[in-house]
Amino acid sequence: MSDQQKNQAAVFTDDESKRRNVIIVYADDLGFGDLGCYGSHQIHTPNLDRLCADGLRFTDAYATSAVCTPSRYSILTGRYPFRNSQAHILPGDAGCIIERELDTMPRLFQRAGYRTGIVGKWHLGLSDGSRPIDWNQEIDLTPIDLGFDESFIFPATADRVPCVYVEGRSVVNLDPEDPIEVSYEAECPFDDIPTYHKNPELLEMKSSNGHDMSIVGGIGRIGYMRGGKKAIWKDEDLAETFLNRAIRFMDESRDAGKPFFLYYALHQPHVPRVPSARFRGATALGPRGDVIAELDWCVGELRKELERLGLLEDTIIIFSSDNGPVLDDGYVDRAYELNGTHRAAGPLRGGKYSKFDGGTRIPFIVSCPGLVNKGVSHALVSQLDLFASFAHMLKMPLGQESAVDSQDMYEALIGADPVGRDQLMVEDVSCGKMLRRGNWTYLSPSEGAPFMPIVQIETGLSRDPQLYNMDYDIGQQENVAWAYQDVVKDMEARLQEIMKSERTR
Ligand code: NG6
Ligand code: CA
């Protein structure tokens, strides 16, 4: 650390005791190259660029996994996905994979006297999983049971049923006359609902892969759903509905005179991409670009509200994404055709589903005027680390079994430590394991196809070990494993060490 940085750290940590609000804005499938502040010229993201200009842009921050559920499990629990065998992409009727007793980041904030809220995409399962979910009753295990005082979510993803909001423990706008039934059987058990192959005349967007079961709102979805007409969301309203809820949560927290922790999990730019009317055609890239413009607007509105409430200076905003980008993820929305020269993963190789860096190295912006230094940070950090870092900030001790893989990176997050972690792992059941250590990335040998033709993404899977020097090869083009066999051996041993490590801090 330079003297100047040490001084800044000293200045900024002086008023650490101030109880700042914390907002995590978590995008879905947004790539390293998708924002103006990360180099995009085709998609204008003035609000995120401004957040970035006021704060710290990380170049070497990682999600723990290249898909949704495992990454979300990690950010909220501070544990690697391998600690939970169910941490893989979940269907919409899955039981909750976070154990009721497990410590979570929102619980940490609750213990510190914060009001905690979640708005947006959940995708970690609901109910205890002991029997099928009855969507018409109160659901027994929801974010409310895991540390969130307020919860307004959709259960899984926008492309799978049930296409409804859940507030607290209940589906919003339930109608006892029109009960909701959900099935993930291969064959449709309901003969009176519109389905993809039976009713193509109802489709407003075609699928390119899968998404061919129920038709809800003119779009084919994964899974079958019957009933709940009044409860079904309108895809073009998702952004504004979630935004309004996020704003309401902030307003109520201010009125309650409490600091707040808000986990605002945006549904963009995951498929199906249906922007609201005002963003249709906002970019030349079609729906994928348009929903990123919409996402940027949501962040701008959130910020405006903080300003209106006089809370901007007292709020830490963290913006990131759960995994890397994909163009065609199963719907015909012309994402390839209209992409032009845009590089959603920036200079990185691979994308969503991939253990190359494109899968997990994601935009990561930390902003809080007066606390966080401005500029660019090359510190190595994982989304896992938010948990322990906030424990530090809140001066709250962590129990032996809390956030076992989370490291205190508070100094890195505020820009006072330019180095961050020694190493971090990226893993999930399908992408295998990757270790980043210093400038090396090591991809351990694994079975599986090196290329996923349906999404046109290189997976990084190979029976041979791969080693890349990120110092001069950010695009991971030159595998130098053969030339540095001692490094390969050491990295493999370290991976094994992490995988065998105890579930204690
Ligand atoms: C895949 C879906 C994809 C997306 C992904 C989960 C098909 C063909 N593909 O199975 O569209 O939903 O699961 O994405 O159904 S994630 O970001 O939530 O992990
Ligand atoms: Ca995702």
Structural description of this entry:
Strand 6 and strand 7 form a beta hairpin. Helix content is 22%, strand content 17%. The N terminus is likely disordered. Helix 5 packs parallel to helix 6. The protein folds into 3 domains: 352 residues, Alkaline Phosphatase, subunit A (3-Layer(aba) Sandwich); 46 residues, no CATH class; 78 residues, 2-Layer Sandwich (Arylsulfatase, C-terminal domain), CATH 3.30.1120. A 10-stranded mixed sheet has the order 7-6-5-4-12-1-13-14-2-15, sandwiched between helices. A 4-stranded antiparallel sheet has the order 17-18-19-22, with helices on one face. It contains 10 helices and 22 strands. With 505 residues, the protein is α/β, with parallel strands linked by helices. Bound molecules: 2-acetamido-2-deoxy-6-O-sulfo-beta-D-galactopyranose (NG6) and calcium ion. Calcium ion (CA) binds next to loops.
Produce the secondary structure layout.
Elements: H1 3-13, E1 21-27, H2 46-54, E2 56-58, E3 61-62, H3 68-77, H4 105-111, E4 115-121, E5 150-154, E6 166-167, E7 170-171, E8 181-183, E9 215-216, E10 219-220, E11 224-226, H5 238-256, E12 260-265, H6 287-308, E13 315-321, H7 357-360, E14 364-367, E15 375-377, E16 381-382, H8 385-394, H9 410-413, E17 423-428, E18 432-437, E19 440-443, E20 451-452, E21 457-458, E22 466-469, H10 485-500
Parallel strand pairs: 1-12, 1-13, 2-15, 3-16, 4-5, 4-12
Antiparallel strand pairs: 2-14, 5-6, 6-7, 8-11, 9-10, 13-14, 17-18, 18-19, 19-22, 20-21
Helix pairs in contact: 5-6
